[in-house]
Amino acid sequence: MDLSGHTHHISRQFNMELDDIRTHLSEMGGMAQRQVNDAIQALIDADQQKAEQVVQADRTVNSMEVSIDEECLRILARRQPAASDLRLVIAVTKAITDLERIGDEASKIARQAMALNRDGMAPRGYVEVRHIGNHVSKMLQDALDAFARLDIEMALNVVQTDKTVDLEYSTAMREMVTFMIEDPRSITRVLNILWSLRALERIGDHARNLAQYVIYLVNGEDVRHFSEDQPDEDPAR
Fold first, then answer.
1. What is the pLDDT of residues 13-26, one digit of tens each?
2. Rounded CA gap, 15 and 141, in Å?
3. How does it assemble (predicted)?
């Protein structure tokens, strides 16, 4: 979808400010996605150095959130945007909160990787981490692309994929718990995998939130609490 509807203003400076927050959001999203991918890889490969880098990168993501939030506040105070421009600023302020939390969850996975390196490799669970991790990473990429393109169809696909991730997470949790019951000696190490899977599931939730902001940005409709029990209501309307 054409972004020009958000950029045609008499003030060239206003145009630049709106472009800047979109660009900076994209940069923050890219950083958060690298954190997620590196954290997953650090866990699977037992890569201590990469895990430490993920934790350190979280500071950068936090700083980016503060900086973009300040940009948005300045636009609200100076420009008093309306209609689609106001929705853009609001959507960006919400999106950076989710991206910051994605960074936090990636750091949790990295810390679990470091713990496993100290305590010994987990007896199982890496297949589930890789599988769910691939789904979640794709969700995040698609959500960011949908935000950049204002692509509602892609955003809706992300929302639907989150349901699949939730089901896969529940299945993986049951399998891990069963394994711990069968082999109590593995409890500590398998718990590290469980916390990592939980963090991945939460990343999926945040990616879903990003996708829902796209729908809000384009249609002006908040679908975060849309109920599946209301089939006559179309969230993309």
1. 888 999 999 999 99
2. 26
3. Homodimer.
Selection from 157, 139, 133 nearest residue 207 by Cα: 139
Question: Do the Cβ atoms of 141 and 149 come closer than 8 Å?
Answer: no
Q: What kind of architecture, by CATH, is found in domain 4-219?
A: Up-down Bundle (1.20)
Q: How far is CA 27 from CA 32, 61, 68, 205, 214, in A?
A: 9, 10, 11, 20, 17
Cα–Cα distance between 116 and 120 in angstroms, integer? Answer: 5
Q: Are 102 and 140 in contact (CB under 8 A)?
A: yes
Other C-beta atoms lying within 10 Å of the C-beta of residue 97: 14
CA distance 100 to 106: 10
d(CA 110, CA 221): 36
With contact defined as beta carbons under 8 Å apart, do 82 and 141 qualify?
Answer: no
Report CA dihedral (91, 97, 102, 107) to the nearest 10 degrees. 160
Amino acid at 98: D
Residue 220, helix vs strand vs coil: coil
Per the document, the length of the chain is 237
Q: What is the pLDDT of residues 108-159, one digit of tens each?
A: 999 999 998 887 666 667 889 999 999 999 999 999 999 999 999 999 999 9
Q: Which long-range contacts (CB under 8 A, 24 or more apart) does 69-77 make?
A: 69/93, 69/96, 71/17, 71/20, 71/21, 71/24, 72/21, 74/17, 75/14, 75/17, 75/18, 75/21
Tokens 């934790």: give the residue.
55
Q: Where are the domains of the chain?
A: 4-219
The distance between the two most distant Cα atoms of the chain, rounded to a whole number of Å, is 69
Q: Are 204 and 98 in contact (CB under 8 A)?
A: no
Q: Using an 8 Å Cβ cutoff, are 179 and 190 in contact?
A: yes
